[in-house]
Write a structure and sequence with these properties.
Strand content: 15-25%
Low-confidence stretches: 1-5, 11-15, 158-196
Shape: globular
Number of helices: 3
Mean pLDDT: 74
Helix content: 10-25%
Distance between the termini: 36 Å
Largest sheet: 7 strands, mixed
Length: 196
Amino acid sequence: MTVIDGATLATPGPALRFRLAPSASRVGPLDGAWWPRSHDLPFELPALAAELDAQWGRVARVTVNPAQWSAVPRRIPVAGHTVHVGWFTAVQDRHTISVRSHLPHRLSLLVVPPRTEAAAAARLMAEAVDPANTRTASELLADEPSVGTPDRRGIVWPVRDPSVSAWGSARWGGPSCSPGPSDPDPRPTGLDADRR
């Protein structure tokens, strides 16, 4: 367990910052929250899947909005099995990850942006698991006072937490390399590209 700003986060080790809402009392759109350390989904997902495999059921598939990730491969190896990855741009909140197990279970988790300062991340995670929360992931981030304003692509880049490595921020999706006016966005857009 890790304690950040008075909030206890379930962690199997130093790599995972994660909370699940009490399943019996959930009324809102979120089942929990995850605070990855980078925008590198193939690097970050194995720790989350390993924790969920032990607590909830083996993770079989996840879907994400590609706006927050530097790469979204179709498959990611996780502790002896493969997690299938899909993505949606129009129908999935850009700040969530949807997780499905081999059992008929589904979770929708707030993805706290990696560069968020620790106190703000703890507040966001606590709100996401609050049984009374009815706000979406994007609404929670919009209401967080320490979160920055969206860039021209609509991506919110919060205040950087100095304890979190900036590794990966120079890849697509980070503030240091936003496409210029003449650079095409490398991600497909539109309804025909909503699902991979």
